[in-house]
């Protein structure tokens, strides 16, 4: 049955993706320009022969912003590689299909390992993968979108360590690492629920065995080794460097009425599906086991966290403000409530359906979910029909990127606009103290001998060069951010520099024409972390092969 169900999941994936791709356009809203610029930088660096990307030399207005150092991007490589064989729009939708099918497949096998039921796993995968909130994330919010792929595997790992087979600790290590490589904030959100589950374990089991504690610590330790390349830059380049990050604040919460009523509408967005809302209203009537009551409680609590009735004001000044948008908890609400929906509905169906009827039912469920998803995506398609194309603007424009339509012929127009959300993330705080400073970076303005110069950058991978002519020896303040491992050369010779009041590179020049090149050279510790991480993944793979062989005996 696995092949049948995976085939049906692939069918729904392709149908929904082709429905979007047939528009031959993309709606650039929310975080789209931030992530699209990162993918463009990776693609252009790959094209020039550089595999690693550290700073934004070609995008982000050539400011050298280091969002690549502090925001994981490994899962964007498939999108970047697809750019070599497909047009920009088609490359995105091909990547979108890959992510969707990966979500469906991991969801299916995670639920199969938990429930041991194929039909329940199929229903879970369908409802979870094509949930309205996940469809919304797939339009632009790609950090969360990628993290959602691995949440079912992550909570399967937590279950195995705390209640199931503790020898499967590796599931938690692997899934935790994959979430970290997708979206750091999702690691924090997942830890919240992991702590709740740990407390529930202590209460319901009146403690926890030493073996389970060992498995928990082992999975955490291995996970750290697996994600060292994500962790190390924070220690080598972020801590103590006066850099900014995404602004911590709770900027939006929903009312219960909004969540309830909005969930019964067809379109994608910040909501649950009507199926999950019905699960909330009816699940209590058929839940029998303590385990399912716990899952139900977690689903309700996740919904509660999205609303303004949770005392979010009390979190001011705490790490919990990193959540920013409480709608992020909808991914967790969808996960827990979909487990109940899948278990309950599959039990009822399997009592009355066998043989060929089961095949017909499975196909019908796939068609229903495909139609439901197409209905959810129809508003997006309608938007693409009526919104205007993104117009051209100057290369150093300070105008925020508008919510407009992108096609292959105007795809590159977006990179000349100021990125709407995240343009100044991970820059020195000193560069953000005024709009004038921010705009001076976007407009490539340098300061020399009391004069303002507008310079044109010469770009290579992780490297920005400027031609600067000075009438006398003087310091030049370039529109490129200075980090701990920034490198500077003048006329081909390594040169000392300091950080200016904009957080930018300031370097002393001799009289005459000078070529100043600003680059980034990662710490040797970073490359060591990559080696350790790769060896850890290989060691874990060898362990799994031996473990499976021993387990099979």
Task: Give the SSE map.
Layout: H1 2-21, E1 26-28, H2 32-47, H3 67-70, H4 77-82, H5 88-115, H6 118-129, H7 132-140, H8 142-162, H9 169-182, H10 184-204, H11 210-226, H12 228-238, H13 256-262, H14 274-282, H15 290-305, H16 330-352, H17 355-386, E2 404-406, H18 435-442, E3 445-448, E4 451-454, E5 458-460, E6 463-470, E7 474-481, E8 486-490, E9 493-494, E10 498-499, E11 504-509, E12 512-520, H19 524-552
Antiparallel strand pairs: 1-2, 3-4, 3-7, 5-6, 6-12, 7-11, 8-9, 8-12, 10-11
The N- and C-terminal alpha carbons lie at a distance of: 24 Å
Instruction: Summarize the biggest pleated sheet.
Output: 5 strands, antiparallel
Helix content: 40-55%
- In the sheet with the most strands, the strands line up as 4-3-7-11-10
Quaternary class: single chain
Determine Rg (CA atoms, Å). 25 Å
Number of strands: 12
Low-confidence stretches: none
Give the class from helix and strand content and strand pairing. alpha+beta
Strand content: 5-15%
DSSP helix count?
Answer: 19
Principal-axis shape equals globular
- Mean pLDDT across the residues is 92
């Amino acid at each position: 049955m696995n092949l049948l169900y995976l085939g049906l999941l692939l069918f729904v994936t392709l149908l929904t993706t082709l429905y979007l791709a047939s528009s031959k356009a993309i709606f650039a809203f929310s975080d789209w320009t931030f992530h699209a610029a990162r993918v463009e930088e990776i693609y252009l660096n790959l094209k020039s022969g550089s595999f690693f990307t550290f700073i934004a030399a070609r995008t982000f207005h050539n400011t050298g912003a280091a969002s690549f150092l502090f925001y994981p991007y490994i899962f964007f490589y498939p999108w970047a590689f697809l750019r070599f064989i497909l047009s920009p729009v088609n490359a995105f939708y091909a990547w979108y299909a890959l992510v969707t099918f990966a979500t469906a497949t991991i969801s299916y096998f995670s639920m199969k390992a938990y429930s041991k039921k194929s039909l329940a796993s199929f229903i879970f995968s369908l409802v979870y993968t094509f949930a309205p909130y996940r469809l919304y994330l797939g339009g632009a919010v790609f950090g969360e979108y990628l993290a959602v792929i691995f949440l079912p595997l992550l909570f399967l790992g937590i279950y195995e360590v705390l209640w199931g087979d503790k020898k499967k600790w590796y599931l938690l290590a692997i899934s935790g690492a994959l979430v970290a490589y997708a979206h750091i904030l999702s690691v924090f959100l997942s830890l919240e629920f992991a702590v709740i589950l740990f407390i529930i374990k202590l209460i319901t089991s009146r403690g926890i065995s030493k073996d389970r504690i060992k498995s928990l610590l082992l999975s955490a330790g291995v996970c750290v080794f697996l994600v060292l390349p994500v962790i190390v830059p924070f220690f080598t380049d972020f801590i103590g460097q006066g850099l900014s990050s995404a602004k911590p604040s709770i900027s939006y919460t929903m009312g219960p009425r909004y969540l309830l009523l909005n969930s019964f509408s067809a379109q994608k967005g910040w909501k649950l599906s009507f199926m999950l809302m019905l699960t909330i209203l009816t699940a209590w009537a058929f839940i029998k086991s303590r385990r399912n009551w716990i899952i139900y409680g977690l689903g309700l609590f996740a919904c509660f966290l999205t609303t303004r009735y949770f005392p979010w004001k009390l979190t001011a000044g705490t790490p919990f403000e990193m959540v920013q948008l409480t709608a992020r908890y909808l991914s967790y609400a969808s996960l827990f409530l979909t487990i109940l929906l899948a278990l309950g509905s599959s039990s009822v169906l399997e009592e009355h359906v066998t043989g060929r009827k089961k095949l017909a039912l499975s196909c019908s469920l796939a068609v229903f979910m495909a139609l439901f998803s197409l209905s959810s995506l129809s508003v997006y398609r309608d938007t693409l029909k009526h919104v205007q194309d993104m117009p051209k603007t100057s290369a150093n424009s300070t105008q925020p990127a508008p919510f407009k339509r992108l096609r292959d012929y105007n795809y590159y127009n977006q990179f000349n606009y100021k990125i709407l959300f995240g343009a100044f993330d991970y820059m020195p705080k000193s560069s953000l103290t005024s709009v004038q400073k921010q705009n001076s970076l976007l407009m490539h303005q340098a300061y020399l001998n009391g004069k303002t110069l507008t310079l044109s950058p010469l770009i290579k991978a992780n490297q920005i060069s400027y031609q600067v002519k000075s009438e006398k020896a003087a310091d030049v303040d370039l529109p490129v951010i200075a980090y701990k491992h920034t490198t500077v050369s003048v006329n081909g010779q390594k040169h000392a520099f300091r950080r200016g009041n904009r957080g930018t590179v300031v370097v002393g020049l001799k009289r005459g024409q000078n070529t100043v090149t600003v680059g980034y050279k990662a710490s040797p510790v970073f490359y060591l972390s990559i080696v350790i991480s790769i060896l850890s993944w290989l060691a874990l793979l060898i362990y799994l092969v031996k473990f499976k062989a021993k387990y099979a005996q």
